[in-house]
């Protein structure tokens, strides 16, 4: 590959400065992180702030599990008590069995046999419960993941389009999708495991207390350094993952380019694969360097803390062995007390790890909370909202300005237009002139930054949003392609109604898609794309566009919006589609965006946009006579066709 290929500019959305997205505001989690205490007096308030957030996140997680299946929490509670009590019971059975075997002359075989039966039953119950617990945990996991995915999809479905234009929104979405699926159940399970560990520890501490109160106290004190290390580094890990979210998105972007079936042709032909892999690895190296530093640093401190704990444990074991040697304790007592010491030690370690994991998990669950707290602004301004009448309509733009989120300039400036049913409006202008944005404001996918859009004399923001969407039949230039049957791809145009097979076929005829559909192996039941079905049909861009046009015909709408509806069609197919539209739009208000200006010749109004402003307005004859911007565009295009 030539070296020049590796110096191609990075797209603005990926361009970074000191490891961050340019113009990206700080993440919400960073902005809300409580300030560290500067003196002793501030420590109580700091602890209250941190723990308050911790417990609120914890209750949020329990709420998610409760929403999924309330009985799951009760099962977890039972399992935690069972798992907490059983180790102590097992330790006593082992102690009595060992003592009986050592002093076999003082016991008959029936006593030993009974103890062996008890041990067998104990081991059987433990294994049975572990199997049941694993089965239930896997079942719970699937249910919780499904519940949360539904919540995320539902939230994404209700959010405004402008949310998807902000990089920080994708940070929330990426973090929520990555973590929220498994974290809630993981944290809920961990808290109940912690309860089991506490029950076991308290039981064994009570056993050891009879011998020496200092022994369990020493083990707990020895665990403190490990606890401190765990809590510090769990927080650091969560902060690092959050800070490097953009790096993970970049890696996903570059790896996605390499496996995207729609991109693979260009990637191969332009030999872009090595470049994207190189960029992927550059981002990974930067991401991994920081992660490796954290891992090694935590590992060093954990080794030191573990060594300190091991020395304390060793000293206590020697002390118990000395008591057995002096005859103060039996061999069975040795197994009981050393087992208790091991259980307390492992319990303390488990508590440290579990609580640190819960703490880390609640930090990550902030990602989901942040996403779920994303506010919708495209809502009716009045309550109850105004109802949208069906039939004829008038639309008026009054001094409308608009800029996309994060931009520092207006895309539309002082737009004043008036349209009514029966008119055919063609929007003309160079790329970036604001044609599609004008239509997005009319359908209330966005709200104007300034000014008003009136529908039937009333502010469009007063209406019920869902009813508003129902009156529009739209085909945007980036139309949808769905991995479903041909029939459903057309029927998606009016999904709130039962699928009408006859109406689907009629729409396909009107959209000029019927001829090629009828040649497909399964006709209208042919699955499209090979994402799910091995026999899925792969359509050309033009064929997909005909499906999108058919979808618009299927929708019984009052206002038609056609944004480059025939861009991928040949001239003959385009002419057929426009002839169909002429019949369909009778009595309706229709908006066209097309770079082929032959479609503008029969329009009742032509709106010429330039740099976000209305440059010219009139019919084809009026604008040709004016010999302005439209005249220049039309004649240039006409001459190009004549030259051919």
Any idea what the CATH architecture of the largest domain is? Answer: Up-down Bundle
Give the uncertain stretches in residue-range form. 1-33
User: Termini distance?
Assistant: 37 Å
- How many domains is the backbone divided into? 3
Q: Main beta sheet: strand number and arrangement?
A: 6 strands, mixed
* Tally of strands: 12
Nearest-integer average pLDDT: 77
User: Globular, elongated, flat, extended or rod-shaped: what is the shape?
Assistant: elongated
Structural class: alpha/beta
Please tell me how large the radius of gyration is.
Answer: 35 Å
What is the percentage of strand-forming residues?
Answer: 5-15%
- Give the proportion of residues in helices: 55-70%
CATH topology grouping of the largest domain: ABC transporter transmembrane region fold
What is the CATH superfamily label of the largest domain? ABC transporter type 1, transmembrane domain
Return the CATH class of the largest domain. Answer: Mainly Alpha
Strand order of the largest sheet: 8-9-10-5-11-12
What does this structure look like?
This protein is an alpha/beta fold. 60% of the residues lie in helices and 9% in strands. The chain has three domains: 27-372, ABC transporter transmembrane region fold (Up-down Bundle), CATH 1.20.1560.10; 391-471 and 559-644, P-loop containing nucleotide triphosphate hydrolases (Rossmann fold, 3-Layer(aba) Sandwich); 479-556, 3-Layer(aba) Sandwich (Rossmann fold), CATH 3.40.50.300. It has a six-stranded mixed beta sheet with strand order 8-9-10-5-11-12, with helices on both faces. Strands 4-3-6-7 form a four-stranded antiparallel beta sheet, with helices on one face. It has a two-stranded antiparallel sheet with strand order 1-2. The longest helix has 53 residues, at 273-325. It starts with 15 loop residues before the first strand and ends with a helix. The model is unreliable at 1-33 (pLDDT under 50).
């Amino acid at each position: 590959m030539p070296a020049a290929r590796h110096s191609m500019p990075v797209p603005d959305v990926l361009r970074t400065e000191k490891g961050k997205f340019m113009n990206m505001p700080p993440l919400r989690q960073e902005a809300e992180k409580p300030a560290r205490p500067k003196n002793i007096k501030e420590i109580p308030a700091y602890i209250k702030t941190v723990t308050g957030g911790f417990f609120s996140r914890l209750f949020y997680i329990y709420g998610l599990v409760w929403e999924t299946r309330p009985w799951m929490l009760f099962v977890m509670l039972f399992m935690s008590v069972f798992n907490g009590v059983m180790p102590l019971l097992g330790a006593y059975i082992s102690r009595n069995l060992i003592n009986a075997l050592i002093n076999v002359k003082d016991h008959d075989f029936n006593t030993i046999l009974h103890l062996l039966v008890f041990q067998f039953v104990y081991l059987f119950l433990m294994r049975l419960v572990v199997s049941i617990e694993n089965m239930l945990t896997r079942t719970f996991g699937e249910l919780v993941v499904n519940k949360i995915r539904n919540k995320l999809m539902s939230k994404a479905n209700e959010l405004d389009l402008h949310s998807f234009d902000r990089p920080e929104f994708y940070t929330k979405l990426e973090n929520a999708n990555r973590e929220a699926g498994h974290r809630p159940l993981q944290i809920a399970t961990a808290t109940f495991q912690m309860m089991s560990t506490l029950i076991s520890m308290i039981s064994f501490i009570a056993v050891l207390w009879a011998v020496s109160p200092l022994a369990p106290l020493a083990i707990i004190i020895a665990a403190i350094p490990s606890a401190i290390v765990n809590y510090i580094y769990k927080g650091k890990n969560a902060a690092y993952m959050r800070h490097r979210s953009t790096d993970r998105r970049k890696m996903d972007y570059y790896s996605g380019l390499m496996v995207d079936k729609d991109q693979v042709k260009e990637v191969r032909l332009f030999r872009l694969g090595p470049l994207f892999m190189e960029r992927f690895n550059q981002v990974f190296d930067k991401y991994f360097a920081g992660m490796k530093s954290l891992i090694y640093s935590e590992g060093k401190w954990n080794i030191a803390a573990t060594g300190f704990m091991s020395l304390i444990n060793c000293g206590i074991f020697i002390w118990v062995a000395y008591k057995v040697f002096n005859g103060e304790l039996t061999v069975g007592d040795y197994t009981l007390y050393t087992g208790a010491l091991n259980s307390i030690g492992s319990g303390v370690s488990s508590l440290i790890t579990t609580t640190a994991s819960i703490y880390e998990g609640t930090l990550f669950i902030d990602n989901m909370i942040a996403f779920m707290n994303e506010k919708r602004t495209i809502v009716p301004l009045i309550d109850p909202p105004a109802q949208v009448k069906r039939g004829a309509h008038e639309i008026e733009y009054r001094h409308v300005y608009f800029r996309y989120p994060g931009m520092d300039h207006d895309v539309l400036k002082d737009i004043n237009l008036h349209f009514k049913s029966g008119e055919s409006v063609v929007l003309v202008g160079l790329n970036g002139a604001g044609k599609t944005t004008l239509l997005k404001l009319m359908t209330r996918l966005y709200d104007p930054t300034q000014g008003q859009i009136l529908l039937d004399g009333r502010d469009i923001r007063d209406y019920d949003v869902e009813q508003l969407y129902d009156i529009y039949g739209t085909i945007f230039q980036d139309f949808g392609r769905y991995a479903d049957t041909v029939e459903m791809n057309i029927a998606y145009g009016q999904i709130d109604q039962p699928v009408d097979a006859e109406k689907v076929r009629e729409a396909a005829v009107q959209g000029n898609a019927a001829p090629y559909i009828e040649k497909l192996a399964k006709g209208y039941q042919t699955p499209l794309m090979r994402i799910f079905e091995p026999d899925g049909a792969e359509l050309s861009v033009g064929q997909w566009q005909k499906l999108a046009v058919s979808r618009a015909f299927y929708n019984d709408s009052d206002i038609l919006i056609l944004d480059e509806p025939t861009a991928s069609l040949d001239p003959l197919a385009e002419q057929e589609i426009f002839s169909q539209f002429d019949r369909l739009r009778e009595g309706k208000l229709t908006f066209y965006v097309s770079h082929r200006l032959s479609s503008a010749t029969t329009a009742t109004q032509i709106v010429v946009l330039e740099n976000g402003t209305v440059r010219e307005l009139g019919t084809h004859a009026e604008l040709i006579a004016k010999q302005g911007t439209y005249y220049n565009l039309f004649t240039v295009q006409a001459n190009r066709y004549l030259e051919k």
